[in-house]
Design brief:
This protein is mainly α. The protein contains 5 helices and 2 strands, in the order βαααααβ.
Length: 132
Amino acid sequence: MPGPAPNPHARRRNKRPDWLSLPADGYDGPIPAWPLNTDPADAEMDLWLSLWRTPQAAAWAEGGFARVVARYVTIVCLVEINPIAALLGEVRQMEDRLGLSPMAMKRLQWEVETPTNNVLAEVTSIDRFAGL
C-alpha cells in the first residue's frame, strides 16, 4: 500500500545537484535587446518581453540564447497568423529546446525552485463586509 502523497509545499530534501534550478518568480535580470536584423512587430515584442520574465529565461540568459528565442518568437507569431503544419512542428521542436514544456524541462534537467513565499491565500475577515 503506498504512503501519503508528498507535500508540494515542503522544502525538497532530495534536490538533484546535477539539475539547473530556475527562479520560481521568473527571471528578473536585464532583457536582451532584440537581436535580429529586422525590427520586431508589436506582437513579437510583447511575446519577447513576456518570455524573458519566465523562469526558463534565467537559463537562456546564462547560455546566450537570445537569437534562438527571437527566432522562436518570430515563428510563433507567423504560426498564429497562418497555421502551417511545417511551422507548427518547428514551434514544437523549439519549445522543447527552450524548455517551454514540462517534459522539455525534465529532459534538460531544469526545475523551478520552490517559491520562498509559501502563502497560498490571504484570509479576509467576513466582519470587513458586514457594513455593506
